[in-house]
Request: fold
Amino acid sequence: MSGRPIREAVRRLERGEVIVHPTEAVYGFGGFLDDGPLGELEKIKGRTGRGFVVLIPSADAVAGMLGETGRALAAAFWPGPLTLVLDDPEGRFHAGVRAADGSVAVRVPGHPLAQQLLTQCGRPITSSSANPPGEPPARTVPEAVRAARARGRTLFALDAGPLPGGAASTLVRPGADGPILIREGPVGLLQLEEALRGVGAEPRQARGAPSGLSSGSGGPEALHVTFVCTGNTCRSPMAEAIARRIIADEGIRGVTVASAGTAAWPGAPASGGALRAAAGAGLDLGSHESVPLTEEVVSSSGLVLCMSSAHLSRVLELGGEGRAYLLAELAGPGGDVEDPFGGTDDVYSATFEQLHALVAAVLTGAGDPG
Reply:
C-alpha cells in the first residue's frame, strides 16, 4: 500500500476525528487520546469511554509501567494479539481510557498497516471493535463503515482488505501479585507460562427468593435481573443471552436482563468458547461488551443471580442483601456453576446447557437443571 492512505489517516486523526483502522483480526474505531475523539467514540459505541483499549507503537510508550513480568510478556508477544492491563498511578494516560480502578489496557498491534499508522502518528490511539448493531466485529471496511453509519457517523477507513476474524486478544494483568489471565485468546496459557519461565512468574486465571417468573408475569414495575460471573466474558453473558431468548419465546412481560463481572475489564468481548457455544444454539454474543460489577449495577437490579459463592459475597458487599442469590440455588440444585474459562469447546457447551436449564428454571419454574 502507498503512503497516501496512511498520511490521510494521520491527517484525520490530527484533526480530532475517529477513523476505522485494522487490527490483526477485525476492524476497530480509533482516535487520539483527547477529549474530542474520546467523546465521539463514546457516542459511536453508545457507552462511556472508560476502559477503551489503547494501541501503542512500541513498548517504549509504556516504559516504567510494565515491570519485570510485563517486560517479559511484551518481549515475547508484541507486536501481536496480547493486551496488557497496566496500573497507571501517575495518570500518564487520559482518564477516558482508564478503567474505574485506574488501569489502562494497551497493545502493540501485529497488523503491519496498524503499525505503520502508529509509527506515523507517533502517538497512541484507541481501539474499540467496529460492530454493526447486533453483529460480530467487522472483518471488512464496508461492515465497519455500516456500523458507524448506524450511529449517524461517516468515518474515514484505512482499508487493509478482508481480515481473518477470530478470537479477541489475550488479556493479561501483570500485577504486583503475579500475572492474572483475564481473558483467553490467541496467546494461550502454555505460551504465557513459557514466556514467564525466565522471571519465575506463573499466570493464574481470574476466578428466600422467587421460584419462577411464569409466562405472562409482570406488573407495573419491571424486574431487572443481572447475571454475575468473574470477567463477564463466559458464564454471565451466556446466561443473559439465554434469558433474553426465553423471555421472548415465553412471552414473559416486565422482566429485563443484563450481566456483569466482579473482575471485568470494561468493553471486553465474550470469550471464543462462549461465542461458539452460543452460536451452536443460534444465539449471537458478537456484540457483547463486558461490564464491571459496581454498587450502581447492584442497586439498579431487582434480582442478582451469581455463578459462585465468591461472586455472591462480592454482590452482598456492594449492597445486594435480599436480592442476590446463587443461580443454581435459586433454580433448585444448589452449588456453583463452574468456570469454563480455558476449557475446550465441549466444556463450554456443557456449561451452556447447564445454564440453559438453570435460567429456564428461574424464569419459568420449569426445567431439570443439573
Q: What stands out?
A: The two ends are 55 Å apart (CA to CA).
